Amino acid sequence: MKILISPPMRFGKDFTGAARRTLEVYSRFKEDEVYLCVDSNTLPYADDEIKVLLSNFHLVNSYNTSRFNYLKGFVQCLKQAKKVDVILSYSECSLSIIYSYFLSLFARKPLIIFVHHVTEEIRGDTNYYFLLKLAFSRSKGIICLDNPEVKEELEKLFPGKKIVTSTNGVNVDQYYTSEEKICDGLFIGDYGERKGVKYLSAIWNLVNKKGNYKLCILGRKWEGKELPKNSIYLGFVSERKKREILAKSKVFVFPSLYEGYSLVVAEALASYLPVVTWDLPWSERFKKGVIKVKFDDVNQFVQVIIELLVD
């Protein structure tokens, strides 16, 4: 089977967890021809470990970060789309799905949409909702993570549509721990309400009333935002550097409100790092090594962190 993955994947600071998971999964499809639309402008910034994964794909040079070359890039992907058996939209972002929808429409090829988590756009909060509905209607089916909360909501939004689940995970052999510690607490995630950043600030500000504890933050979109007390924003780092920071941290602080799977929690556990998070439906899959606090009980969240830090 010949598969085309779209829209053009971005790299460097624009590389997402969904993109990473897509590469890790479909690089194993040795018996199929898997073509990957890539953004030529950011491809040189791909992490060295990501480049190894990319070597398993037939790359289709395109453009996703340049308005001037956007149409030219779409034509490049469309040429390849006409030669494959199916088109896979690897991201649930509205513009990503719509891009893949038009490829499917013009190439007259079936479309499959991967949904990592149900976004507000999929729920209808977007000016492009009409096109999103057309895309899901045209699709042959939806692949989502094996999160019951995600699957149940998709079934309500798209009744009658075939929905299959896929699991997730990390290669634990790549992770480790270290006696040297540079971060008391560690948070990995983009700035946004869904990630619980307001709770993060409230929690860590209270933690620092108990002592001088440093929080390290990895992720995107934190530039110009007010950081929690005694915290440092490390920005976007390589996969290798991220594993090093995980190994050199004491507690993984993750007050996220909603996740599809949460690779970062799996990465923290693989790094022998205790995880403190809310007791919400998304966290049900995680058992050992995760301390779940009753949602909205900030004081209890703080108390758990302090007990771990002084232990």
TrEMBL record:
GO terms for MF: glycosyltransferase activity
Query: What highest taxon heads this organism's lineage?
Result: Archaea
| PANTHER family, per the entry | GLYCOSYLTRANSFERASE WBBK-RELATED
Entry protein name: Glycosyltransferase
Q: Which Gene3D superfamilies match?
A: Glycogen Phosphorylase B (3.40.50.2000)
Q: Which Pfam families match?
A: Glyco_trans_1_4
Task: Please provide the record's keywords in A-Z order.
Answer: Transferase
